[in-house]
């Protein structure tokens, strides 16, 4: 087991409405081990989601670097970083972000087809992943026909579509009731064990925090363990 992600000296500032610079992240160093569930906690406004977006290459830091599987992602141009994300990274957000006009199976097939996988192969993989998340019987349903818990399960299956090395999750159960949250948390553990994928999760949910092999806390723009 080695490190799948290494971040060094990540800083990020934003301009507030009064034109004042607000330093949110003040030199974050963080590493994540392969096949772990690792959790980022911290008060509201501490920069948890900002950090997750930077670590996954969805946004760029003011300074610092991030290596995923040894690739320094901010040395890639925009096109290559998009390809890297599609090939190596999965995402699960608080709101599922499924495309409403497509079925569950089609939502999972799309990232595969972007990668160049044929419709036939992508459809087969989608069906296998829906089975893995317990939704085989919902493959032809569109998001509006699914419950909140089912939508998040489809989002987890979509995150797995291209066999990622790491899945970044931002408050994945934040929009669910306690029963569906518990079910989703168990699914994350099952997925980690079955697919050998690493999870890095931002959450306020104490039950999800308990599942973390490592808990990273953001406070005053720095990380504490």
What does this structure look like?
The chain is α/β, with parallel strands linked by helices and 225 residues long. Helices cover 36% and strands 28% of the residues. The protein has 7 helices and 10 strands. The chain has helices spanning 48-55, 78-88, 104-114, 119-132, 148-159, 178-195, 206-211; strands spanning 3-15, 21-33, 37-41, 63-68, 71-72, 89-92, 166-170, 198-202, 214-219, 222-224. A 6-stranded mixed sheet has the order 6-7-8-3-9-10. β7, α6 and β8 (198-202) form a beta-alpha-beta unit. The longest helix is centred in the last third of the chain and has 18 residues, at 178-195. The mean pLDDT is 87.
Task: Name the descriptors.
36% helix; globular; six-stranded mixed β-sheet; four-stranded antiparallel β-sheet; 225 residues; alpha/beta
SSE blueprint:
Layout: E1 3-15, E2 21-33, E3 37-41, H1 48-55, E4 63-68, E5 71-72, H2 78-88, E6 89-92, H3 104-114, H4 119-132, H5 148-159, E7 166-170, H6 178-195, E8 198-202, H7 206-211, E9 214-219, E10 222-224
Parallel strand pairs: 3-8, 3-9, 6-7, 7-8
Antiparallel strand pairs: 1-2, 1-4, 4-5, 9-10
Helix pairs in contact: 3-4, 3-5, 4-5, 5-6
Put the structure in a nutshell.
The protein has 225 residues and is an alpha/beta fold.
Residue runs with pLDDT of under 50 for 5 or more positions: none
| Shape summary | globular
For the secondary structure, the number of strands is 10
Strand content: 25-35%
Largest sheet: 6 strands, mixed
**Helix share bin:** 25-40%
Cα-to-Cα separation, first versus last residue: 20 Å
Gyration radius (Cα, Å) is 17 Å
> Strand pairing plus helix content: what structural class?
alpha/beta
Summarize the helix and strand pattern as letters. Answer: EEEHEEHEHHHEHEHEE
Q: In what order do the strands lie side by side in the largest sheet?
A: 6-7-8-3-9-10
The helix tally amounts to: 7
Average pLDDT level: 87
């Amino acid at each position: 087991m080695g490190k799948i992600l290494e971040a060094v000296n990540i800083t990020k500032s934003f301009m507030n409405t009064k034109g004042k610079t607000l330093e949110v992240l003040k030199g974050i160093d963080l590493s994540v081990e392969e096949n772990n569930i690792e959790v980022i906690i911290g008060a509201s406004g501490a920069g948890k989601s900002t950090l997750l977006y930077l670590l996954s290459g969805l946004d760029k830091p003011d300074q610092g670097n991030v290596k995923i599987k040894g690739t320094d992602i901010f040395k890639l141009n925009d096109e290559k970083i998009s390809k890297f994300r599609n090939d190596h990274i999965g995402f699960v957000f608080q709101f599922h972000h499924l495309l409403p006009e497509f079925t569950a199976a089609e939502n999972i097939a799309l990232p595969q087809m972007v990668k160049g996988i044929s419709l036939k192969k992508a459809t087969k993989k989608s069906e296998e992943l829906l089975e893995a998340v317990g939704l085989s019987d919902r493959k032809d349903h569109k998001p509006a026909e699914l419950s909140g818990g089912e939508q998040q399960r489809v989002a987890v299956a979509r995150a797995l579509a291209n066999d990622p090395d790491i899945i970044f999750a931002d408050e994945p159960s934040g929009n669910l009731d306690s029963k569906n949250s518990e079910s989703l948390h168990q699914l994350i553990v099952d997925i980690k064990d079955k697919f050998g994928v690493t999870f890095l999760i931002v959450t306020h949910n104490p039950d999800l925090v308990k599942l973390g092999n490592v808990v990273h806390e953001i406070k005053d723009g720095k990380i504490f363990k």
